[in-house]
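In the current project phase, we have settled on a layout for protein records. One protein thus recorded is set out beneath this paragraph:
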Amino acid sequence: MRFGKKGKFSPRYIGSFKILERIGEVAYRLALPPSLSHVHNVFHICLLRKYMANPSHILSAEQIQVHEDLSYNEQPMVILDYKVQILRTKTILLVKVLWRNHGVDEATWELEEIVRQEYPHLFKSTV
């Protein structure tokens, strides 16, 4: 099992990380993100691969209005999909919402009723 993924197509290389220090002749300590806190941060040199710079890896970040407590308001941009969740005794209507400053892979499923109340402008263009 590699990094929480089991199976034939589990990722072999998971990202580029800064090398903090060299330990001995064949091991390195890496700066891993908190999401990989369960992984030991010292790796043998055979498990590392040189990062090849790619101009498409440069991310363009939009300016975000940050409040004094370092929080910001999430604003939905568009509804990507609709789904009906059928339970034993009731039916739940869901919408997949694309949020500002997030990619399509980070879109979330929300209750249609709540989104319709808070953001009615998203539904005017789809009706």
